[in-house]
Structures are given as structure tokens and as C-alpha cells.
Amino acid sequence: MKKIFKKEKIKELSWFESWEFKGIKIVLLPAKHWSKRRLFDRNTSLWGSFLIQTDKTTIYYAGDTAYSYHFKDIGEIFEIDYAFLPIGAYKPDYIMKHNHMNPEEAYKAFKDLNAKHFIPIHYGVFKLSDESVSEPYEKIVKIIPENKIPKIGEVVII
Question: Which of 18, 49, 54, 76 has the fewest CB neighbours in a 10 Å radius?
Fold first, then answer.
């Protein structure tokens, strides 16, 4: 993507490469999705998730991804405090399952990551698929034991 953003300060990373700045380490990790920025460049750049580490906390941000083995791999390498995982835009399944997770798959990813806290993302703002905007959150609060996830609008201090 550096070619597109010629005048910007860009740090390119491949999966599992990292960059450190002022005590914060950022690691580019795999995600399962397609990529495209121009007419004829489908899947020519990496789609990624991110790990943000400080000396006190490790945050995993899955971004836009389908469920895949990469969560288990990441969970075996890193000790994750907070996992930001997508729970929306999953219907119809036959189209969306290749790029997005449903709440059940997000919970499975959370378990694979062995993370301490689950923060749901990628739901409730725009109608991107066939489920209602409220359905993903309604489903995840029934799945997560003891409803240990933030309420909509709740501030989480990390």
C-alpha cells in the first residue's frame, strides 16, 4: 500500500512482523478476508489484525475477519488481555462466512485466543447484511458466560 500513500510516513509490515514506538509494540497478524484497493489488485496485499503491547497490557484487534485457524495460532504465541472481535455482518451465511464471523464464531475465536476480556466490534452502526443491527449484540450477551462483556455505550478503561 506504500505506493498509494507516497507522501505519508508508512511502516509496512508482513504478518508477524512488528514495529515499536515509545514503548508500544505493534504486531501485524493474520486475518481472513479479501483485499482490494484498485480494479485489478484483488488479494495482492495482506489483510491483517493487530496486536498492541505495552509493558502492562496486550490488546488484540481482529479487525474485519472470518473465523479461521489463525486465532488458535495467535493465542499460542501471545498472552492477550483484551480481544476486540467482530460479531456482525454475517447473514446470509453462504456469502458472509468467508469474510465475517457470527457471534458464535467470535466466541470460539475468543476461546482460541485464550484472552481475558472480550470486546465486541463490527456491529450495530450500519446495516451491512441481512441480520438486524441489534441481533449480533443480543446473541453475544447470551453466549458469553455471566455476560462479561461491555454494555453498548459502556466505557472500558484499559
Answer: 76
Rg over alpha carbons for the chain, rounded to the nearest Å, is 16
In a domain, 2, yes or no: no
Asked if residue 7 is part of any domain, the answer here is no
Task: Tell me the CATH number at 99.
Answer: 3.60.15.10
Terminal alpha carbon distance of the chain: 31
Helix (H, G, I), strand (E, B) or coil at 71: helix
55 is in which domain, residue-wise?
18-147
The label of the residue with cell 461491555 reads 150
Residues with Cβ < 8 Å from 113, sequence gap 6 or more?
Answer: 60, 71, 72, 74, 75, 80, 83
Structural domain count of the chain = 1
Residue 31 located in a structural domain: yes
pTM, two decimals, is: 0.88
User: Can you read off the three cell numbers belonging to residue 138?
Assistant: 443480543
119-157 pLDDT, tens digit each: 999 998 888 899 999 999 999 999 997 668 898 888 988
